[in-house]
Amino acid sequence: MDSTVWALLLSAVSISFIHTASGPDHYLPFIVISKSKKWSGMKTAVLTVVCGLGHVFSSLILGFIGVFLGWQLNKISWFQDIRGNFSGWALLIFGGVYLVYGLVQAIRNKPHKHFDVMGDDVYVYEHNHSEVVMPQTRIKVTPLVLFMIFVMGPSEPLIPLLFYSGVKHSMSEIAVLVTSFTVTTVLTMLGMVLLGRYGYSTLFNTEKLERYMGVVSGAVVTVCGVGMVFLGW
């Protein structure tokens, strides 16, 4: 693989790992439900993998919108001469914008999900720290609810990476991005769930890291864009 593919691969793996590991909602509900319902390790793993694939699917839908747009631009004759510079700058600009967006979200009191355990049941709700959460705003977590939560929570930073490969009309780069993003997301979810289920703590405070997930993801895309534009990756 050339340096461009390696850069895209490392970016996709970094973004998917950070996005997954930094959000307690990616693994905490599975751990709690598994323990409260006394599920087997196999049942817990299967539900985690299914929800992880649903999460990847929604991310890839957005990502393939980027591929489609890049593919269409690639058909324009005058665009052929500028597509290399354009795609690299597009990646760099998106990364910078997403980095700023992540900083704003980290500074603001952004609403986030919480999971409450009440007896043998788990409830999910969204709030910020200045709000009082009313009981009726909580939703009981079931396997179907969990699956829907993951399907409706895609990873946006994947879009510019796939757009870049779409502009270049590179099926090999698209395949590398999709495969690496899918495998990393599912394995990270599964690893975090199994660690928690069997009583092991994670190596870092993911709730604090979650606040800066947008910042880190934006920084990864920005670095990748800088490499494409200025370093000849």
From TrEMBL:
It comes from the Bacteria. The chain crosses the membrane at residues 44-69, 89-107, 144-164, 176-200, 212-231. Keywords: Membrane, Transmembrane, Transmembrane helix. This is Sulfite exporter TauE/SafE. The lineage of its organism: Bacteria, Pseudomonadati, Bacteroidota, Flavobacteriia, Flavobacteriales.
